[in-house]
Amino acid sequence: MAAPSPIRIAIAQINTEVGDFKGNAEKIITHISKAKDQHADMVIFPEMAVTGYPAEDLWLRKEFIEKNLTALKEIIPRTKGIGAVIGFAFEDDEKLFNSAAYILDGKLIGTQHKTHLPNYGVFDEKRYFSPANSHQVFSCKGLKFAITICEDIWAEDDIIAEYSRQGASFIINISASPFHKGKLQERISLLSKRAASHNIPIVYANLVGAQDELVFDGTSLIFDGAGKLIAKGNSFQEDFIVSTLHGSEIFPAAGGDEEILQALILGTRDFLRKNNFQDAVIGLSGGIDSSVTAAIAVESLGKEHVVGVMMPSRYTSKESGVDAAQLAKNLGIRTIQLPIDDIVNSYSQALAKEFEKGNIGKAEENIQARIRGNLLMALSNKFGWLVLATGNKSEIAAGYATLYGDLAGGLAVLADVLKTNVYRLAQLINEKREVIPKSIIGRVPTAELKPGQKDSDTLPPYELLDPVLKAYLEDRKPEEEIVQMGYAPEMVKGVVKMVHANEFKRAQIPPCIKVSPMAFGKGWRMPICQKHPAP
Which listed residue (114, 181, 470, 514) is catalytic? Predict the structure, then answer.
């Protein structure tokens, strides 16, 4: 008996949109045609390619599921002469499944449901789906293969062993795996180990694009039976990979700060595009956060779609104004000047009778931030621009941000980036040419809401604050362990207290792009009312 001929597999690493059944179907059909043109035997699409991912409570709506099934039926006849694996939502006997359809030569051959439903971090799949209770192998060009869906390949019980016993020659994993720093290396390590331990090739097709706060980096992968990485898709962009299971060219992926920057660019671009915004508006203070946010916005949208607004007060230094203007010139963006002193005076007059009862302090400072937030929102309402909030993770964690002021906006671009990392991103942005003036990078951080103000008047220096925040928030270390890392007990206690005292603020922040293992937003589920740490 002749051995099966080598199989040629295509991965369509596409950017889908939740609920855009027509657009998603058209994109799938286009890539099926492309796979045929490149003589592929099979083309593989990401998890929930038909519905978009994650669709959250839309999955609970009957009409949503019906439209998804109708879209799949329209796709099936377009697979004449090729096989296709496509993620979709399947309903049977009032149970909903996260599923993959295997279609061959214009016919639906079978469906495999997801077995392991993640229910941690940003995932909530047990709310929507039932797990698979059976597993089967399929065949293409004389080779048996199995289909797994995202978490199935990560699970400790190792579903691959069962498929190997059923005679599968290779494993397909369709996925919608969100990005965070270091995630790619985790995937490569795990998939390589899975392939090598069972001597079976693995084809991993990952979603690309952003949905709300999540960024999917793509970077689809193929491993041979020895666990060697033999093909890799590009990161943070749509790609089309065609390979046998015996090797092809590998392209290097970005790492470290570069992958974070790419994730923020993609997250910003898709958030605006998928919410039908063309333009963004940003308050330019001459500080590092607004500068990096503006640079990301220009890279995401193009300079003609970004507006910078300068809103100086009596406390705004001459240097800040010069730097903000130079940044705008370097980026090539339009600017608007809206001085706020007269508005601040109007507020002061209106509140004079009540405010004379107390000392000048935070209330007067925050009025300035809230005036700026109001002006940005007015421009947004008038011209249809999306306001990009500029606060970073360090400030938001410690409560050093003003509700309805610098937290105002539709998207918080840097809300998952610690302050020290913001400076590193600025250096990265400046690698090819000076976009962010060096004077901005070198200046001591200040909100400029009162004379001589510095962030360090209220917060520990960021080089001390940020490692403590990372240890507590992202690594989930208790206070005692953080102290053992060499940080002063009183400082650690104070930082933890600030984090928990400001939960009510974080409950009201705009969506933030997730680039760390723990971001505020979907993956952060803390009670607003709490007694932690205990007094």
Answer: 114
